[in-house]
Amino acid sequence: MILTVTPNPSLDRTYEVPALERGEVLRATGERVDPGGKGVNVSRAVAAAGHRTLAVAPLGGAPGALVAELLAGQGIDVAPVPIGGHTRSNIAVAEPDGTLTKINAPGPHLTPGESEALLAAVGAHAAGADWVACCGSLPGGLAPTWYADLVTRAHGHGSRTALDTSGPSLLVALRGRPDVVKPNARELAEAVGRPLATVGDAVEAAEELRAAGAGAVLASLGADGQLLVSADGVWYGNAAVASVRSDVGAGDASLAGFLAAGGEGPAALAAAVAHGAAAVQLPGSQMPTPAHLNPSAVTVTTDIPLDRALTE
Fold first, then answer.
1. Active centre residues (catalytic)
2. How far is it, in rounded angstroms, from Cα 139 to Cα 132?
3. In degrees to the nearest 10, what's the CA dihedral of 216, 275, 189, 203?
4. Largest distance between two CA atoms of the chain
5. What domains appear along the chain, each with residue ranges and CATH number?
6. Per DSSP, what are the bridge partners of residue 31?
7. pTM of the model as a whole
């Protein structure tokens, strides 16, 4: 069972338009409303793959109630933590060429009591979880050390931890020795404090995160594939994608595929790549089902293209 923690969930509205024209009245050709936030998306992808999951999230107001309702409608167990503020609402505008414009609201400010209630909710359910996936930005009221506390508590309950966040909260949480961290190329560069020009640069940066405390690094490099760097070796995975419809939640789908496939080794990396490639070809933040996956299009190798330039 995979338990997900989303400190700053959202209600996500995605509109598809022929073109984004600033200052004009636009007619959408498609619309989706999805429960959102990185951990929530991981739970949605895990459930879509037919595995057990529980989503822990602070939820408040009408948007929070709708998030819980939408998750339950997808067969996902939810452990909501009531808060006084309102769950944020985000908007994404998708164009036919794959260009995506996103407006993310800041989210509510959690009180010290709500922060502790969220940690307590994780503790109440972590003992039955194989993985605790800690994902997304921290809302106001949560210190950068919050994820570090969560990782330590999850380990205390015998669960492995996967961390998908960025900035100071990522660097501080490394002290708790999360089993897997999942940065994208930008977040990886930010973590090591320098730009990354090649896949080889990304490998070196991932090794630095391992030296700082991460058990393994699953790095999403966008169109340039994915890396898995662990104590057992380094693997590179990629898959051809005919067209990109929306990349919202693609990294979350990748993490879900990785954890559902065991969370270690080349087979799990192949599952991550397959899920990410399927997700970008779906509208909005729709998560792929097994029917959307194309494992035969995935290649995983230890022959790392170190000199390959990163395009994103």
1. 252
2. 19
3. 50
4. 54
5. 2-301 (3.40.1190.20)
6. 15
7. 0.91
